[in-house]
UniProtKB/TrEMBL annotation:
Pfam families per UniProt: GST_C_2, GST_N_2
Record flagged with keyword Transferase: yes
Gene Ontology CC annotations of this record: cytoplasm
Keywords from the UniProt entry: Transferase
Upper taxonomic lineage: Bacteria, Pseudomonadati, Pseudomonadota, Alphaproteobacteria, Acetobacterales
Species of origin: Falsiroseomonas bella
GST C-terminal domain residues: 87-218
Protein name per the record: Glutathione S-transferase
Superkingdom: Bacteria
Domain GST N-terminal per the UniProt entry, residue ranges: 4-84
GO function terms (MF aspect): transferase activity
Amino acid sequence: MADGRLVIGTKRYSSWSLRGWLMVHMAGLDVEEVLVPLAGGGGTQEIKAISPNGLVPYLEHLGARIWESIAIAEYCSEIAPTLWPADRIARAHARSIAAEMHAGFRALRMAMPMNLGRSFPGKGRNPECLADIARVEAIWAEALAAHTGPFLFGRAFTLADAMYAPVVTRFLTWQPELSDATKAYCQAVRAHPLVDRWYREAAAEPQEWLLEKYENPA
Ligand SMILES: N[C@@H](CCC(=O)N[C@@H](CS)C(=O)NCC(=O)O)C(=O)O
């Protein structure tokens, strides 16, 4: 029997679920995956009935109940401390940029929602979204330059990379103008075995789960 469960939404669309799922798999937790298809517009009643904040990801593990992806990151790092960088200063940096992702980039998230099955080059751009993209690129450039890649803090895929993985998918879908360093980082994240697995599982989801709002954005 599994040690608990991870509740997530539709893999094609649920960016926060991708974060939690990556973290739980990186930590090697033995949990059952419970996937609730998103209804769209935040109206998934089944999720509201299960999760304390009415949102996914939601983790139950050996008596602990954890919601909010940043809290799931910290819980997973208690089980697997190497998921944050070993160096204190790098770890503080990684936690800071993970927290910045958790708290912000609303314009980017609104203008370029995650859709792993589509490509919308040239669309979704507005000044606020482009400002968010510029800040993401600056964050990534600083970390990549300091730790020489391919991931933000060097050779290991850390919890900071997990927090930004859905941004990578947005960049691949919406294809804004990006630096070469950003594009190389996006390719490294896309090629990570867990990210690739999530993409394959998203592609296998039933047609009935597709939402018009995300398939044909304005
Ligand atoms: N701050 C939350 C955000 C979670 C969130 O917004 N999740 C969305 C899915 S990506 C959700 O559960 N929506 C509920 C719904 O669509 O009914 C976190 O960090 O986990």
